[in-house]
Amino acid sequence: MEKDTAQKLDLRIKRSGFASRTDFFTAVAEAALGQASDALEQSVRDWIDTQTPTETEEQIEAVIDQTIREYLLPVIAVHGADVAFESTWKDVRRIVHDRINLWLTTSELKQAYTRFEHLNRKELSDYKNEHLTGDEE
């Protein structure tokens, strides 16, 4: 399995409530081998329907980036991703949950802030220069 695929799988497993890959694959194997009771199999199906994210990783990333852009572009432009993260991650986590019913981990939010800063470096620099030098129109 490619590294990127493994990371996405690990994230899905964690989001789904399993403590480890072993726990996840054990549950899958038991269901596939018919060793789970009918009630458990139904509960697994119910759980899959209600608990696993319906969004792709790309869609989740887009919601995170949109939220950061809407609420934090000025903060990241002036203070940087690290400062913005320390003071706002809980709020962003709640907003993303409200939008897509998914609780993000602290580490994936930290990565998202850093990714946003890296991918939008020019826009952030322009924003900072424009607003701190008083060149607003």
Explain this structure:
With 137 residues, the chain is mostly helical. The chain has two domains: 3-51, no CATH class; 57-132, no CATH class. It has seven helices and no strands. Helix 4 (57-79) packs antiparallel against helix 5 (81-100). The radius of gyration is 20 Å and the shape is elongated.
- Output mean pLDDT: 85
Number of domains: 2
How much of the sequence lies in strands comes to under 5%
Shape: elongated
Helix count? 7
The profile of the biggest β sheet is: none
Low-confidence stretches: none
| Number of extended strands | 0
Helix content: over 70%
Tell me the distance between the termini. Answer: 52 Å
Q: Structural class from helices and strands?
A: mainly alpha
User: Could you give the order of the helices and strands?
Assistant: HHHHHHH
State Rg. Answer: 20 Å
Write the layout of secondary structure elements.
Layout: H1 3-15, H2 21-32, H3 38-51, H4 57-79, H5 81-100, H6 106-119, H7 121-132
Helix pairs in contact: 4-5, 4-6, 4-7, 5-6
Summarize, please.
This protein is mainly alpha-helical. It has helices spanning 3-15, 21-32, 38-51, 57-79, 81-100, 106-119, 121-132. The protein has two domains: 3-51, no CATH class; 57-132, no CATH class.
